[in-house]
Specification:
Blueprint (H helix, E strand, L loop, with lengths): L1 H5 L3 H37 L2 E15 L5 E12 H4 L3 H12 L12 H19 L6 E10 L10 E9 H4 L5 H5 L2 E2 L5 H26 L11 E6 L10 E2 L11 H4 L1
Parallel strand pairs: 1-4
Antiparallel strand pairs: 1-2, 3-4, 3-6, 5-7
Length: about 260
């Protein structure tokens, strides 16, 4: 080896050796990163986490002849976060805001100028997904949420854009009415809690926007939810429903439920 290195071809052999070693180390490093990423994604899947996708879900309410109110959840589609926010800075901002939510505070913050931009991008995506269908149009409230409480209940965990008719959202102002609702799955009690907070936030936003408009002041960055004119299918199969086991949600119940 010393003879080769000290020969006329020594520098060239040394360069090849160093280059080959660095290439091999790079390949090994990339392979290890791939293994670690796969394991991280596997752990997320096992925990029910799906941070890299965004789902659209519509809330359907119905009242039976006996007066029992039922909440049903139906999916309207999903896409990778990158497809919704081509601007990587916007994508990272949304993910950061989603991760700042808490089990008892599931609404993703849409505050300030950047929040308004994120909300607008979400509205464009939602309208593109659901489109104009041959169903009666109504006013639907759109809000992004990131529910984490269901994790310890064995549920799914991902960012979700909720759609609920404006008139239906008003039903979630009263906690006793919320408590009495029936659902299709026990874990859907968390969605009722989210809608309870969503109704309060929408009322706060609406009052503020109306006040600013009455004062001839700008309200562009005050909206944390959008009102969309959509034609969505509100039909649903009459699947079996159950009462919510609220004791399972004790850690994230609102103050109104503990008074």
């Amino acid at each position: 080896m010393d003879v080769l290195l000290n020969s006329r071809l020594g520098p060239e052999l040394l360069r090849i050796l160093v280059t080959g070693s660095l290439f091999a180390l790079g390949m090994l490093f990339g392979w290890l990163l791939g293994i670690l990423r796969w394991r991280r994604l596997r752990r997320q899947a096992e925990r029910g986490e799906a941070r890299e996708v965004l789902t659209i879900e519509k809330i359907l309410l119905e009242r039976r002849p006996d007066g029992q109110e039922i909440m049903r959840i139906r999916s309207c589609g999903r896409d990778p976060i990158d497809a919704i926010f081509p601007n990587h800075a916007a994508r990272d901002a949304f993910l950061e805001r989603a991760e700042q939510t808490k089990p008892d505070q599931p609404l993703v913050s849409m505050e300030n100028k950047l929040g308004s931009y994120l909300l607008q991008e979400l509205a464009i995506w939602v309208c593109g997904q659901v489109g104009d269908r041959d169903f009666p149009h109504d006013l639907w409230i759109m809000a992004p949420v990131y529910e984490g409480g269901a994790l310890y209940l064995g549920g799914h965990h991902s960012s979700t854009v909720l759609l609920i008719r404006r008139n239906d959202l008003s039903m979630f102002r009263d906690w006793e009415r919320c408590r009495a609702m029936y659902v299709e799955h026990r874990s859907h009690g968390e969605r009722i809690l989210t809608l309870f907070k969503m109704a309060a936030e929408f009322d706060r936003q609406d009052a503020l926007v109306q006040k600013r408009r009455a004062e001839a002041r700008r309200s562009k960055y005050e909206e944390t939810m959008y009102i969309l004119d959509l034609g969505l299918d509100t039909r649903a199969m009459d699947l079996p429903t159950i009462a919510v086991p609220w004791d399972r949600f004790e850690a994230i119940l609102p103050a109104a439920a503990k008074g």
